[in-house]
């Protein structure tokens, strides 16, 4: 659980199950379509909500195509990864016992579409370059609003839910928005302090739809930023990808003589420094609360990886590691750390 599957493995596993529906699609680059279809099917949601296979396939292919493959990080593979993580969290006992099929449908759809049509640059960049999306969404959760409205556009275009009562499909659209908007990292403290208060007061009642919805928001937030909680070899690759995207934005800003956004200047930051900050101030606080809510082996494994990965990045970062030895740092070292490797391999049950 919580383990990312490489695409060939994923395809091999899924191909047997759904090859009939996707005969011509057994090629690389379809992990989002395969995975989402497979999960919807496995949860029995296609049957329960009487989803039309042709419409569903078209919807998923369009979703996948609307991600930008040229983005190093915010592409369809990230969306598939988040959908897979979301599935793992939905299976956690507290959620599995209380979520309705409708909740699960929303959770999976939100995960699959949560970064739809991501331009590969962040909100401050869109605002300072007077991008039409910044004007359209009034500088507020610009990207997340766009991901949501793009998802709604595809739902309507493919008429995936057109057989449901209008109020149901509107409710799906609205709740999808509320889930996707929760992934706005700049609003993390709002969500986190609400979560903390609920846990302190021990008053989350998952019989209430509004509380289940809040837990789904938190689950999606965790799924979105769980890369640092994966075993080092996987985590490291995601870190490289996301930093590559940041630095690419910084290069554009440099080229156009714009102010370089925080974390985006490749001369002032390293992957390690970006990651250590992200883990310390964003990921750790979120997953610490998540583990309080869902105190399971998966949560503990994720916190364990997080600690080890942070130590590995610190070892690669001369300033942060506190070692003042002369000469180059050895980029390969943290990878070789026997304790880290043993632990990440030891917990790769899935
Ligand atoms: C968005 O921010 C820009 C830059 O700060 C500003 O010029 C613009 O008026 C803002 N737009 C809205 C709708 O607030
Ligand atoms: Zn994301």
UniProtKB/TrEMBL annotation:
<keyword id="KW-1133">Transmembrane helix</keyword>
<dbReference type="GO" id="GO:0007165">
    <property type="term" value="P:signal transduction"/>
</dbReference>
<feature type="binding site">
    <location>
        <position position="115"/>
    </location>
    <ligand>
        <name>Zn(2+) 1</name>
    </ligand>
</feature>
<feature type="binding site">
    <location>
        <position position="115"/>
    </location>
    <ligand>
        <name>Zn(2+) 2</name>
    </ligand>
</feature>
<feature type="binding site">
    <location>
        <position position="114"/>
    </location>
    <ligand>
        <name>Zn(2+) 1</name>
    </ligand>
</feature>
<feature type="binding site">
    <location>
        <position position="224"/>
    </location>
    <ligand>
        <name>Zn(2+) 1</name>
    </ligand>
</feature>
<dbReference type="InterPro" id="IPR002073">
    <property type="entry name" value="PDEase_catalytic_dom"/>
</dbReference>
<feature type="binding site">
    <location>
        <position position="224"/>
    </location>
    <ligand>
        <name>AMP</name>
    </ligand>
</feature>
<dbReference type="InterPro" id="IPR036971">
    <property type="entry name" value="PDEase_catalytic_dom_sf"/>
</dbReference>
<feature type="binding site">
    <location>
        <position position="275"/>
    </location>
    <ligand>
        <name>AMP</name>
    </ligand>
</feature>
<keyword id="KW-0114">cAMP</keyword>
<feature type="compositionally biased region" description="Basic and acidic residues">
    <location>
        <begin position="330"/>
        <end position="339"/>
    </location>
</feature>
<keyword id="KW-0378">Hydrolase</keyword>
<keyword id="KW-0479">Metal-binding</keyword>
<feature type="domain" description="PDEase">
    <location>
        <begin position="1"/>
        <end position="320"/>
    </location>
</feature>
<keyword id="KW-0812">Transmembrane</keyword>
<feature type="compositionally biased region" description="Low complexity">
    <location>
        <begin position="314"/>
        <end position="324"/>
    </location>
</feature>
<feature type="binding site">
    <location>
        <position position="78"/>
    </location>
    <ligand>
        <name>Zn(2+) 1</name>
    </ligand>
</feature>
<dbReference type="InterPro" id="IPR003607">
    <property type="entry name" value="HD/PDEase_dom"/>
</dbReference>
<dbReference type="InterPro" id="IPR023174">
    <property type="entry name" value="PDEase_CS"/>
</dbReference>
<dbReference type="GO" id="GO:0046872">
    <property type="term" value="F:metal ion binding"/>
</dbReference>
<feature type="binding site">
    <location>
        <position position="115"/>
    </location>
    <ligand>
        <name>AMP</name>
    </ligand>
</feature>
<dbReference type="GO" id="GO:0004115">
    <property type="term" value="F:3',5'-cyclic-AMP phosphodiesterase activity"/>
</dbReference>
<feature type="region of interest" description="Disordered">
    <location>
        <begin position="314"/>
        <end position="350"/>
    </location>
</feature>
<keyword id="KW-0472">Membrane</keyword>
<feature type="binding site">
    <location>
        <begin position="74"/>
        <end position="78"/>
    </location>
    <ligand>
        <name>AMP</name>
    </ligand>
</feature>
<feature type="transmembrane region" description="Helical">
    <location>
        <begin position="18"/>
        <end position="40"/>
    </location>
</feature>
<comment type="similarity">
    <text>Belongs to the cyclic nucleotide phosphodiesterase family. PDE7 subfamily.</text>
</comment>
<dbReference type="InterPro" id="IPR023088">
    <property type="entry name" value="PDEase"/>
</dbReference>
<feature type="active site" description="Proton donor">
    <location>
        <position position="74"/>
    </location>
</feature>
<protein>
    <recommendedName>
        <fullName>3',5'-cyclic-AMP phosphodiesterase</fullName>
        <ecNumber>3.1.4.53</ecNumber>
    </recommendedName>
</protein>
<comment type="pathway">
    <text>Purine metabolism; 3',5'-cyclic AMP degradation; AMP from 3',5'-cyclic AMP: step 1/1.</text>
</comment>
<dbReference type="Pfam" id="PF00233">
    <property type="entry name" value="PDEase_I"/>
</dbReference>
<feature type="compositionally biased region" description="Polar residues">
    <location>
        <begin position="341"/>
        <end position="350"/>
    </location>
</feature>
């Amino acid at each position: 659980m919580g383990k990312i599957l490489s695409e060939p493995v994923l395809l091999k596993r899924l191909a047997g199950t759904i090859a009939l529906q996707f005969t011509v699609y057994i090629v690389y680059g379809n992990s989002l379509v395969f995975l989402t279809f497979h999960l919807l099917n496995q949860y029995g949601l296609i049957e329960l909500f009487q989803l039309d296979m042709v419409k569903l396939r078209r919807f998923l292919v369009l979703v996948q195509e609307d991600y930008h493959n040229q983005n190093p990080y915010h592409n369809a593979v990230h969306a598939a990864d988040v959908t897979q993580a979301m599935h793992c969290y939905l299976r956690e006992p507290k959620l599995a016992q209380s979520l309705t099929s409708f909740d699960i449908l929303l959770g999976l759809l939100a995960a699959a579409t949560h970064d739809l049509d991501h331009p590969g640059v962040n909100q401050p960049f869109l605002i300072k370059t007077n991008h039409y999306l910044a004007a359209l969404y009034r500088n507020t959760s610009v990207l997340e609003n766009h991901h949501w409205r793009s998802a709604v556009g595809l739902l309507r275009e493919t008429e995936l839910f057109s057989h449901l009562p209008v109020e149901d499909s509107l409710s799906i659209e609205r709740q999808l928005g509320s889930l996707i908007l929760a992934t706005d990292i700049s609003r993390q403290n709002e969500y986190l302090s609400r979560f903390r208060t609920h846990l302190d007061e021990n008053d989350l009642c998952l019989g209430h739809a509004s509380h289940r919805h809040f837990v789904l928001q938190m689950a999606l937030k965790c799924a979105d930023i769980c890369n640092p909680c994966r075993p080092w070899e996987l985590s490291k690759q995601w870190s490289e990808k996301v930093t590559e995207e940041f630095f690419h934005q910084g290069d554009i800003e440099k080229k156009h003589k714009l102010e370089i956004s925080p974390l985006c200047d490749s001369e002032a930051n390293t992957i390690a420094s970006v990651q250590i900050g992200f883990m310390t101030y964003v990921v750790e606080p979120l997953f610490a609360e998540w583990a309080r809510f869902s105190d399971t082996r998966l949560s503990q494994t994720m916190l364990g990886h997080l600690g080890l990965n942070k130590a590995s990045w610190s070892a690669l970062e001369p300033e942060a590691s506190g070692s003042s030895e002369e000469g180059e740092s050895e980029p390969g070292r943290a990878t070789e750390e026997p304790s880290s490797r043993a632990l990440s391999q030891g917990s790769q049950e899935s």
